[in-house]
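Hi support team,

I'm filing this because I wasn't sure whether my run with adenosine monophosphate finished correctly. The job status page said complete, but I'd like someone to confirm that the output block is well-formed before I use it downstream. Pasting the exact inputs I used:
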Amino acid sequence: MKILVINCGSSSLKYQLIDMDNEAVLAKGLCERIGIEGSKLTHEPMGKEKYVVEKPMKNHQVAADLVINALLDAEHGVIKDIKEIAAVGHRVLHGGKYYSDPVVVNENVKKVIKDCFDLGPLHNPANLTGIIACEAAIPHAPQVAIFDTAFHQTMPEKAYLYAIPYEYYEKYSIRKYGFHGTSHSYVSKRTLKVSGLDPKNSKVIVAHLGNGGSISAVLNGKCIDTSMGLTPLEGLIMGTRSGDIDPAVLQYISHKEGKTIDELLNMLNKQSGMLGISGVSSDFRDVKKAEAEGSHRAKVANEAFVYRVAKYIGAYTAAMNGVDAITFTAGVGENDAIIRSQVCEYLGYLGVKIDEEKNKVRAIEQLISTEDSRVKVYIIPTNEELMIARETLALI
Ligand code: AMP
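And here is everything the job wrote out:
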């Protein structure tokens, strides 16, 4: 049975076609610059040449049709009949308070995704457009929505409420939601499996450190806290996002520079984080290179990033009254041995000990703590597409 996984951004559409009989990726690809000049589809069928189509894509519907054509193409395709696609799993950013599980899309689900446009203004409209485009392009297949917020819906009130007048929660559902849920769900489950911990008696911290980053506390298999908030801006220092700051900073800059709240939020989302402190780049590899070349700002950006990660791990250890396993995942978490090692240096008081030889690996599943470490530390590569495909299959 084959499942198509779709992840739409405001001007992009990423896809993977997965054969669920052996969980093999048959093809993957990306439509870029949808709705703007220079649209391009890059299609990678496994075992065949990469195939690039440069054609105007005025909207996601055109992009979805091109993806279907590529999948069916006599030379570059991987299926013969559209009916081979049994279902489509869509990554959807924000499900608000409504969904804690994947759902088969119907009119009500589409209404909820729309009702959450305010909460995910860049992603939710694109996600809905992608669903509507696939309904038209693959009409026989059920469409399934998998929400990035869903895994975190088990957080208790004390973790998700902001200490602002309660009426804003009641009127507008303003609270912490958390993101990267599919990744936290996959990686925490995998951690339980490889560690042999009893899922009903386990304390796991997942550090998803990529261009966007978030940490979650998973007690007995359920998320009880996570670092992102109402939006993905809260929490860790990220590529271009500030993470936690004193909100009064916004008023201060606004008064000094006459900037609007929208301009300031744009600054916090797009010009801050590693880019803002280092002045070099949002990419951790560039910042590291700049540090090696003597840039003080790059050095401080790296130090501040590691420090914030360590503080969250400390906080979540307190929240769970202990920790059995800590798992690193995503671009930085999977690849950057130095950052993993520096984070763990802060955690010596918990009895965390890293085996630096084992820690040298990149992007493979591995235990990196020593035998006598009181906490197990893992690298587990995240696989959000596979998780979406599995959840889609389970639902249909
Ligand atoms: P992601 O958002 O999960 O794709 O992660 C992207 C981030 O991972 C970028 O900032 C990259 O610099 C970082 N990254 C990827 N490979 C490496 C590496 N080998 N060492 C350090 N950082 C890396």
